[in-house]
């Protein structure tokens, strides 16, 4: 649990877009994982399985909430406070600024493209895993992933033309 | 090249379809032969006049209609280019385009930077209590209760060890006293006034003196207790003694069923460890019989025993 808590919490945060909700959600996800762990045997695919379960739980919760929180609830400041465990205060500051920029750009993206970025580029899932998870053909997932990356790059550059230069 | 050879190749020469060697030879012949030069100029002018010059940008426009703009094509492959997933030929062409194109170059750089920044957003730190909370939620109910009780005890002891506790206790006590005695509708609101009146009207009588109210109350309570003991005490003692003797007698009487119950319980445990379902069921049935025998022996009254004894010879 110590190994995966950051990943699960990160995924929940990207879906719920609120730190408190994400924490509650991550707890629920781990409880469900604990209950279903007996029925899971494939050690190598543990992380994709956990992420799939986490995604389904988050989407269920969002459906129950019916309404998606507004864009300003992404809490850019909050996202900046919730930092990953990287050393070096100066690097952390710069990386934090870039992360904040990416959060803003992600906010402006469509739900579908944001999810594609989250699963492929942030969580690092394989295209085949995403294809199974979303029940879409592999080619569709690949083209959507490309489109999403281009859209994000365009939006980031629109927010800050110096990004990547 | 002579004139006949030149005239055979004249059309190809004008259409620039000759090879380099033949083209050089034809040009050399043109320099040397004025007749062929005149014929070439004449034919060339007439061909040129019948073939209009294409408008500027026609080729680019046709390419754009048939295969899209260069940037659009390049953007279709930009992600693969950044990921180094293109074949070498395409990768070289893309590299040339990206270096030359002012729109695609920053986009490619942004994509490359995103490749570094996005994976770092996968993991977020949770707070220190996160794991504890999950563990508590997944523990069995009894352990969860024990854990909550321990947390409550810890919190309570922390509260008691606070230095300001005495002050707060005194404050709270004063508040309670005020509420009890000074609120107008309280049932004890009249107590302080009546106490003061009593002290003022008969100040010389001490409450604890012989003949005073406290001494009278004490005498009344002690005489009541004495009478109650005389009325019930002996009976209670004798009854409890009888009950203890009866229980001891019954306990010895059920020695047999108890022994059977222990034996069958051990059998059931062995069967459960051996995963022998049928033996386990038999042992459980026997234990049920032992328990009912034990119960019968424990609850049977001496009268029913006598009746059983009397009934036995009849059977």
What does this structure look like?
The complex is a heterodimer of chains A (165) and B (315). Chain A is mainly alpha-helical and 165 residues long. Chain A has eight helices and no strands. Chain A has two domains: 1-69, Rna Polymerase Sigma Factor, Chain: A (Orthogonal Bundle), CATH 1.10.1740; 83-165, Orthogonal Bundle (Arc Repressor Mutant, subunit A). Helix content of chain A is 71%, strand content 0%. The longest helix of chain A has 22 residues, at 138-159. The radius of gyration of chain A is 16 Å and the shape is globular. Helix content of chain B is 77%, strand content 0%. Residues 307-315 of chain B have low confidence and may be disordered. Chains A and B meet through helix 1, helix 2, helix 5, helix 6 and helix 8 of A and helix 7, helix 9 and helix 10 of B.
Write the SSE topology.
The complex is a heterodimer of chains A (165) and B (315).
Chain A: H1 5-16, H2 19-36, H3 46-65, H4 76-81, H5 89-107, H6 111-122, H7 127-134, H8 138-159
Helix pairs in contact in A: 1-2, 1-3, 2-3, 5-8, 6-8, 7-8
Chain B: H1 3-8, H2 10-14, H3 20-32, H4 34-50, H5 58-67, H6 70-76, H7 78-82, H8 88-100, H9 104-117, H10 130-138, H11 141-160, H12 165-182, H13 191-201, H14 213-253, H15 255-273, H16 277-299, H17 302-314
Helix/strand structural class of chain A: mainly alpha
CATH topology of the largest domain in chain A: Arc Repressor Mutant, subunit A
Tally the structural domains of chain A.
2
What is the mean predicted local confidence, pLDDT of chain A?
Answer: 81
CATH superfamily of the largest domain in chain A: Winged helix-like DNA-binding domain superfamily/Winged helix DNA-binding domain
Greatest interface and its participating residue counts: A-B, 44 and 31 residues
Strand content range of chain A: under 5%
Biggest β-sheet description of chain A: none
Rg of chain A is 16 Å
Number of strands of chain A: 0
